[in-house]
């Protein structure tokens, strides 16, 4: 099992570089759970040769990414580096959509779902895109999404990769769930100002994020954090999200996946994965709140109430209470008066 120390202070962004040990371990665990042999890195290298979406500079995926790293290092101006960075991100977006054509909420978060069924989901595709960009020498990582491109809110219902342009212009959301590579999600969750925060990107020309404002209205006097003040999600948080999705989509679990309703065994599986997720990232508010729902479905009312109160406190500290969290908090407070 991949173990990740809980970060204190500024959390280091996840190193997800293609071919690196962290992605290899994440993939190996997914393969082991599915009973598969082989290596995801080998599968992706083979997919690169089949996809017909080449990146200039090498016959293999590694060679092409390493050549792009050299091209970026040799670029003479910030504008030239930014152009190469945008081209690389747009290529990664095309490549993933071509190599893994199907999308599945139920199974697509598992690395093993790619060789088995050709399915992907937002977390997995974002890990792969960020890893390809990192291998090319670019600063990239993951953020959660709480407000989509049309401004509709969710309870951290999506994940996207983000590229930090090397010339200093700002950030770009690179989202393979969208038809075009550079998205404009209106609300993200990332590390800023000493903790995980709900943030609202400020977009400039070309979908470039020039700054972020905090959803709770706090922050610097001018109200806008520079992109350099945002840090992408840590390895612990990313690892936690894989286990969160395993809990959410467990057969018969909290969503009743596959069976149409929750079952005792399914709820136990959801609880187990959520507690694991919170060991890896205690600041994962989504996992904290959903664990309360699992406990509530199990009839463990006092534990559910305490868990909902804990989740609400965590969301409030991070700057926003989604509607579902507010409803759970109202239920918990009602239980306290009964």
Basic shape: globular
Number of strands: 10
Which consecutive residue ranges, at least 5 long each, have pLDDT under 50?
Answer: 1-9
Ends distance? 43 Å
In terms of DSSP E residues, the strand content is 15-25%
Can you offer a commentary on this structure?
47% of the residues lie in helices and 16% in strands. The protein has 338 residues and is of the alpha+beta class. The model is unreliable at 1-9 (pLDDT under 50). The protein starts with 20 loop residues before the first helix and ends with a helix. It folds into 2 domains: 21-233, no CATH class; 236-337, Serine Threonine Protein Phosphatase 5, Tetratricopeptide repeat (Alpha Horseshoe), CATH 1.25.40.10. The chain has 11 helices and 10 strands. It has helices at 21-34, 40-51, 61-74, 78-99, 113-117, 122-135, 235-248, 264-280, 285-297, 301-318, 323-337; strands at 102-103, 119-120, 139-147, 153-164, 171-174, 182-183, 187-192, 195-203, 209-214, 230-231. Helix 5 links the parallel strand 1 (102-103) and strand 2 (119-120). Strands 3, 4, 5, 6, 7, 8, 9 and 10 form an 8-stranded antiparallel sheet that branches. It has a two-stranded parallel sheet with strand order 1-2.
């Amino acid at each position: 099992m991949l173990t990740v120390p809980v970060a204190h202070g500024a959390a280091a962004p996840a190193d997800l570089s293609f071919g690196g040990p962290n992605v290899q371990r994440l993939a190996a665990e997914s393969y082991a759970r599915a009973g598969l042999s082989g290596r995801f890195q080998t599968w992706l290298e083979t997919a690169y040769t089949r996809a017909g979406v080449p990146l200039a500079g090498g016959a293999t995926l590694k060679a092409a990414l390493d050549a792009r790293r050299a091209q970026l290092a040799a670029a003479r101006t910030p504008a030239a580096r930014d152009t190469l960075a945008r081209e690389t991100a747009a290529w990664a977006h095309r490549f993933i959509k071509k190599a893994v054509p199907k999308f599945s909420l139920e199974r697509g978060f598992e690395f093993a779902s790619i060789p088995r069924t050709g399915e992907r989901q937002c977390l997995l595709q974002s890990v792969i895109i960020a890893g390809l960009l990192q291998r090319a020498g670019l600063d990239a990582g993951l953020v959660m999404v709480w407000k989509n491109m049309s401004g509709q809110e969710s309870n951290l219902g999506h994940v996207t990769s983000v590229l930090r342009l090397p010339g200093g212009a700002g950030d770009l959301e690179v989202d393979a769930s969208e038809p075009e590579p550079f998205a404009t999600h209106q609300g993200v969750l990332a590390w800023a100002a000493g903790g995980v925060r709900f943030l609202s990107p400020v977009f400039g020309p070309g979908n470039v994020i020039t700054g972020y404002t905090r959803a709770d209205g706090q922050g610097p006097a001018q109200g806008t954090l520079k992109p350099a003040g945002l840090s992408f999600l840590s390895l612990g948080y990313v690892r936690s999200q894989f286990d969160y999705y395993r809990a959410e989509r467990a057969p018969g679990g909290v969503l009743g996946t596959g069976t149409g309703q929750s079952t005792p065994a399914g709820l136990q599986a959801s609880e187990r994965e959520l507690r694991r997720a919170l060991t890896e990232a205690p600041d994962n508010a989504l996992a904290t709140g959903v664990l309360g729902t699992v406990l509530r479905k199990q009839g463990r009312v006092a534990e559910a109430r305490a868990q909902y109160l804990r989740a609400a406190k965590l969301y409030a500290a991070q700057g926003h209470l989604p509607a579902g969290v507010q409803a759970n908090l109202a239920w918990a407070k009602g239980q306290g008066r009964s």
